[in-house]
Design goal:
By secondary structure, the chain is α/β, with parallel strands linked by helices. It has 26 helices and 30 strands. The chain is globular, with a radius of gyration of 24 Å. Bound molecules: iron/sulfur cluster. GO terms for molecular function: 4 iron, 4 sulfur cluster binding; formate dehydrogenase (NAD+) activity; metal ion binding.
């Protein structure tokens, strides 16, 4: 656009907060500039370092600009005709020789609702439910627990109502100061300045800890627990609340009327806690009992208390039970169904919520309709005109485990499993055993290196569609057009592959993203009332059942969306991580992310402004451990686990507890995921990224 033309309003491509930004394409050139969008609905013009640097990757020199085909181990350029022909040929062959379940499809939380909708439709038309996305890695367990016990796998409340009404923020295993900077600075910080109290439960002191020391009162608390002891800690809280209620029944420790009218399973909780030993549990958590009791008091006695939950809770083999215990606490204290309360997962990617909403998961169709629910499945089949397999497919980690066994081919749209999955060395080995893999992406990712065909896609800034943020707000993205002539938008690629596979009339040929959205709303009840016009510049929260509905900023005002309409309480017991320290690997390794980088770093590592701040990986080591191992701040160290080793710089700090070390997954040269354990939560199939046994020693360095 020229100088006086309006910049294009779109949404930041990084995190799930969903900040609005504007972009501008240099007149006659290919560079895309960032512009603030002053009255953007979520952030009102504010952005964090990532949002401000997001345009740096759009016209990056590393962009893939032509289709590539691997021949004798080397990539060569190919025409679209040849590349697409090869994809269609291989997908047809695999289905003929091994059946449809021999393919796996990875949607992407970095691509838009329309694109993921079409990809999961392609998988199902192909004949398999083996389709998933990286929500599996971050919040599968949260979604499972929220869905089963409350009805819907999403934030119960919205950032705005929480900021206005919450008196106590209980933040467990989440780090909004680092991961959701604008939610933290714009919403939560505001509430804190107006008197709200923060209780943080986390093994690591981090930006959230520091940002809430802002008003220098001592009302905030940080309960620095041992990794993997969230259930016992919350059981201490629950038991304290129940005991105090016995002592002072009128004091409002629990909400008897709410428990009576709106929940089931309370007796199961009291039975589970009957012989629970608070003192022993507090000891196990490594937190003084009186601190946990005081935190329990602050939460239970608040008018409105809200729980925030993150990957510190979800990425465990007991992830579902971790979140269930948060739900238990919210239900017994009546902190649900009102503004300023609830159980609120802070979602990671800009469209991780939407990717799940539109059905890019093996067990659900669009709108979380179960594939094995005959009535729901048939209603979708009526619109699609073909039959959908009636049993859930494999999750992405299961697909990865089956690669080279029952799974022969993989279709990857914009994900990077070689870095994002745990035990990364094994992931790469398994991908090598596939007959065929096609990757569509903007850069040569660590995963694309293993592909047979690479299809060059466009970036977030070049195309339009919708994304859904962490508080269920669906917003439109708008693009400035293609930078590289020979790239294609993800939607066009999926549409072309499917049309070649299944024919012109198979329902994959759409004029534009809006036409896809129109079909999506037909099969997705929670989006049914939305149109592109209705979304406008402000967006709409789901559920939005009929046109004109405003959408719900908070859920469950009158009933829960479970079969009984009641919220489900269920007592849970401590389950230690699957790998605990021993003589060979005496430390607990835990992992988390940085503000400046995004997951596998495909974009953020290519952004000079972000990479300059954190060009390489590091590990936090407690001073006592450093002394024991002879490690000085800044030394290179080798970290080993049963699965691999990496060399990184040591940062000696009291942010971490003694006996625990902390690193990140972002850097290809030394990713924490080489070390992590790929054991899964049985129900949600999420891996245990947050606790593994490890050893450390001084290394020479590069
Ligand atoms: Fe982008 Fe998230 Fe930063 Fe907002 S908070 S600018 S959405 S990365």
């Amino acid at each position: 656009s020229s100088e006086d033309a309006e910049p294009t309003k779109t949404i930041c491509p990084y995190c799930g907060v969903g900040c609005g930004i504007a972009i501008d394409r240099e007149a006659g050139g290919d560079d895309v500039q960032f512009r603030p969008w002053g009255d953007a609905p979520v952030n009102e013009g504010r952005i964090c370092i990532k949002g401000g640097a997001a345009t740096q990757v759009v016209n990056h020199e590393d962009r893939l600009t032509d289709p590539l085909i691997k021949e004798d181990g080397e990539f060569r350029e190919a025409s679209w005709e040849e590349a697409l022909g090869r994809v269609v040929e291989e997908l047809s062959r695999i289905r003929e020789e091994h059946g449809p379940d021999a393919m796996g499809f990875y949607g992407s939380s970095k691509t838009m609702n329309e694109e993921n909708y079409l990809l999961q439709k392609l998988a199902r038309r192909y004949g398999t439910n083996n389709v998933d996305n990286c929500t599996r890695m971050c919040h599968a367990s949260t979604v499972y627990a929220l869905r089963t016990s409350l009805g819907t796998g999403a934030m119960t409340n919205s950032m705005a109502d929480l900021a206005e009404e919450t008196d106590v923020f209980w933040i467990q295993g989440a780090n909004p100061g680092e991961q959701h900077p604008i939610a933290n600075s714009q919403y939560f910080r505001q509430a804190v300045l107006e008197g709200a109290t923060v209780i943080q439960v986390d093994p690591h002191a981090n930006k959230t800890t520091r940002s809430f020391e802002i008003d220098e009162t001592d009302r905030h608390m940080h309960l620095q627990l041992e990794p993997g002891t969230d259930i016992p800690l919350l059981n201490v809280v629950l038991k304290t609340v129940l005991e105090r209620h016995e002592e002072e029944p009128e004091a409002g420790w629990i909400d008897e009327a709410f428990i009576e009218e709106r929940t089931e399973g309370f007796d199961h909780l009291t039975e589970t806690l009957a012989d629970f030993d608070k003192e022993a549990a507090a000891e196990e958590c490594g937190v003084p009992l009186e601190d946990i009791e005081l935190a329990a008091e602050k939460y239970a006695r608040a008018d409105n208390a809200a729980i925030f939950t993150g990957m510190g809770m979800s990425q465990h083999t007991c992830g579902v039970d971790n979140v269930q215990n948060e739900i238990n606490l919210a239900l017994v204290t009546g902190n649900l169904g009102r503004p300023g309360t609830g159980v609120n997962p802070l979602r990671g990617q800009n469209n991780v919520q939407g990717t799940s909403d539109v059905g890019a998961m093996p067990n659900v169709l669009p709108g979380y309709q179960l594939v094995d629910d005959d009535e729901a499945r048939e209603s979708v089949e009526d619109v699609w005109g073909f039959e959908v397999p009636d049993e859930p497919g494999l999750t992405n980690v299961e697909i990865s485990h089956e690669a080279g066994k029952s799974v022969h081919g993989l279709y990857v749209m914009g994900e990077n499993p070689v870095m994002s999955e745990p035990d990364a060395n094994r992931v790469a080995e398994r991908l090598e055993r596939l007959d065929f893999m096609v990757v569509q992406d903007i850069f040569m990712t660590e995963t694309a290196e293993y592909a047979d065909v690479i299809l060059p896609a466009t970036t977030w800034a070049e195309r339009g569609g919708t994304v859904t943020n962490t508080d269920r707000r669906v917003q439109r993205m708008r693009g400035v057009g293609k930078i590289h002539e020979n790239t294609r938008h993800d939607l066009e690629i999926v549409s072309e592959v499917a049309t070649r596979l299944f024919g012109e009339d198979a329902g994959f040929d759409f004029e534009d993203p809006e036409a896809v959205f129109e079909e999506l709303r037909e099969v997705c009840p929670i989006y049914h009332g939305m149109t592109y016009d209705g979304l406008g510049e402000v967006g709409l929260h789901w559920p939005c059942y009929e046109e004109g509905d405003e959408g719900d900023p908070y859920l469950y005002a009158d009933t829960f969306d479970t079969e009984s309409s009641l919220g489900r309480i269920e007592g849970v017991r401590h389950q230690p991580p699957k790998e605990t320290p021993d003589e060979e690997y005496p430390l607990i390794l835990t992992t988390a992310r940085l503000e400046e980088h995004y997951n596998t770093g495909t974009m953020s590592r290519r952004s000079p402004r972000l990479n300059d701040r954190h060009p390489e990986n590091f590990v936090d080591v407690h001073p006592n451990d450093a002394e024991r191992y002879g490690i000085e701040d800044g030394d290179y160290v080798r970290i080993t686990s049963r699965r691999g080793e990496i060399e990184v710089k040591a940062q000696v700090t009291e942010d971490i507890k003694e006996g625990v070390i902390w690193t990140t997954p972002h850097f290809a040269a030394a990713s924490g995921n080489v070390l992590t354990n790929d054991v899964l939560d049985e129900r949600a199939k999420i891996p245990e990224y947050k606790a593994a046994a490890a050893e450390i020693e001084v290394a020479v360095g590069p």
